[in-house]
Amino acid sequence: MKRKRLLTKIRIALNQLRSFLHRMLSDSRSGDVSSRRVIGVVGFLALTVMMFVNALDPKSVAPDEHLVAAVEYIVIAAILGTTADKFSKREKNDEEPNV
Questions:
Q1: Within a 10 A sphere around the Cβ of 87, how many other Cβ atoms?
Q2: What digits encode the pLDDT tens for the residues 37-78?
């Protein structure tokens, strides 16, 4: 009986976590998962994990500084692009432009 309740609570918590992650990574306008948000979150997590690993391990394990800077710039660009897209105004046109 207690085990069933515990499993039910765990399922509910996992569903709430999945829903939270989907909302966090989704575009507010279309509801689709935004690649910029995914790149920003994955890059941020990679930099954070790398920082903790380098704090615990000797300096010889650290990656090249240029690679770290490149990942930093990619994460910054992804987050700034997402932020700019969030606050930009788009006009909805039903007609496609003639090319």
A1: 6
A2: 888 889 889 888 888 888 887 666 777 888 889 989 999 998
